[in-house]
Amino acid sequence: MRLPDPGEAVxxxxxxxxxxxxxxxxxxxxxxxxxxxxxxxxxxxxxxxxHKDWLEKKDxxxxxQIDNLRRRLTLIRAMQLFGAFSLFLCVVSMVSVIAGMQHLxxxxxxxxxxxxxCSLACLCYEVWISGGALRILLNAVEEERR
Length: 146
What we know:
The protein is mainly alpha-helical. The chain has one domain. Helix content is 82%, strand content 4%. The protein is built from 5 helices and 2 strands; from the N terminus they run ββααααα. It has helices at residues 20-23, 25-57, 60-98, 102-130, 132-145, and strands at 10-12, 15-17. The protein has a two-stranded antiparallel sheet. A hairpin with a 2-residue loop joins β1 (10-12) and β2 (15-17).
């Protein structure tokens, strides 16, 4: 079995895949992981502070904020997992291209792209609900005005 050159194009079902194609996701995944980690660390610190405040005051407003942040942390963990599996499948795809296993390269890269899409979908939803904690505070202010 002849191994293709790293820059050689490979065709599977009409799709041309070079080893550099899956490699294009590496910088994007790295930047996303940095963003996800920063979000996670920020939310962790915020939850610790809110938990401390809740233990002192037992305020329902604080509890609602903590619940919102719990949902966001769950989404961030999902984003990280989808991104990690996506990166792993990019590596599998690149190794498959180099090894001449085209039947594995294209599907693994396709799944890697789908997982990256799932990660980004979780990010969009997390951004959407990130305003939830602020809405809780704004609603509380409106309630006190009445």
